[in-house]
Amino acid sequence: MSAKRSDVAQKAGVSESTVSRALSDSPLISNETKRIVQSVAEELKYFPNKQAALFGKSKTARLGFVIKSYKSFPPFSRAYFPAQLDGTVLAADENGYSISIILDEQENRIKDFVRLVKTKEVDGLLLGVTSIDDARLAQLIENNIPFVLINNYKENCNTVANDPENGMAEALKHAAELNHRQIGYITGDLKYYDGQKRSAVLKKYLKKYNLSAHIVEGTFSKTNGYYQTAKLLQKNPKPTLIMTASDRAALGVLNYCVDHDIKVPQDLSVIGYDNLAPAADVTPALTTVNNPVTRIASQATRLLIDIIEGKSEKVVNNFVETKLIIRDSTAECPK
């Protein structure tokens, strides 16, 4: 009986993920640990090479990570996609797979995606950003292309996404406990699952916490957050707290406040959504809903590998809980 990864891990005194990383020469593993793991693997005759294991099965051991390409900024210039990439690369590496980054520049690129899998350039696709009504998803299903949606949901599609329910409920409760009654909310782009779902959850909990809200439609962006803040602060009654569907939009709120001599949180409280890298570093540090983007991407990657390897046959919808992170951008409602 051939040795398994767990056998190597047990004898080497390390975790199974460390075995995978050590044998794929990951920079995350020390040279000494690599030496020990490689020695044990040779002793037990453990040969984990995924390409060799899949030889003859027409597999590549490579996954396509599809992300949106925007004309106005490079795709990895924002914290969201790098956080996704961290999760996909590490999970793929632990399982002997590599990642190919595919830029989604045009809505009609479905043929390109199908071709990538059909011609065995990749074994399956991780879709980082897709709109709810994206017709290409049905075509992927029709062509039997293995794929997983990240932070999106569509019936009959495998997905791993954040569930805003708990985090946004905590955010509204926090606002009520600080005696805010009139809030403003800047939605995300409503053609995306995240934009629609977060707005629906907000509306669900307003009455429970005795809150009223002026709601304006946004796009998740910092620039849009800036201009929507101007609209909200012209409303009557004026909101004493603004929530946004993304941290980037919240940064736009903070920038508007700086430019117009509005003190946060003394004059206006601000709550974001995502808890990505900039949130803790801005002044004041941003109160925000934690969206575990890296963990979600990691789970999506493992799910895709299971689908490719025939370990998952049913459609899987996994929704990961969110929670509120309280920092310095919220305070008692001004008198």
Please describe what this structure looks like.
This protein has helices at 5-12, 16-23, 31-44, 50-54, 80-94, 110-118, 136-142, 164-177, 193-206, 222-232, 247-259, 293-308; strands at 62-68, 98-104, 124-127, 147-150, 159-163, 182-186, 212-216, 241-244, 269-274, 287-290, 317-321, 323-325. The protein is elongated. The model has no long low-confidence stretch (mean pLDDT 89). It has twelve helices and twelve strands. It has two domains: 62-159 and 293-318, Response regulator (Rossmann fold, 3-Layer(aba) Sandwich), CATH 3.40.50.2300; 163-291, 3-Layer(aba) Sandwich (Rossmann fold). The strands form two sheets. A six-stranded parallel β-sheet has the order 2-1-3-4-5-11, with helices on both faces. By secondary structure, the chain is α/β, with parallel strands linked by helices. 40% of the residues lie in helices and 18% in strands. The N and C termini lie far apart (74 Å).
Report Rg: 23 Å
- CATH superfamily (homologous) name of the largest domain: Response regulator
CATH-scheme architecture of the largest domain: 3-Layer(aba) Sandwich
Count of alpha and pi helical runs: 12
Beta percentage is 15-25%
Order of helices and strands: HHHHEHEHEHEEHEHEHEHEEHEE
Content-based structural category: alpha/beta
Query: How many DSSP-defined strands?
Result: 12
Q: What is the global morphology?
A: elongated
Name some characteristics of this structure.
Rossmann fold, 335 residues, elongated, alpha/beta, six-stranded parallel β-sheet, 2 domains, six-stranded mixed β-sheet
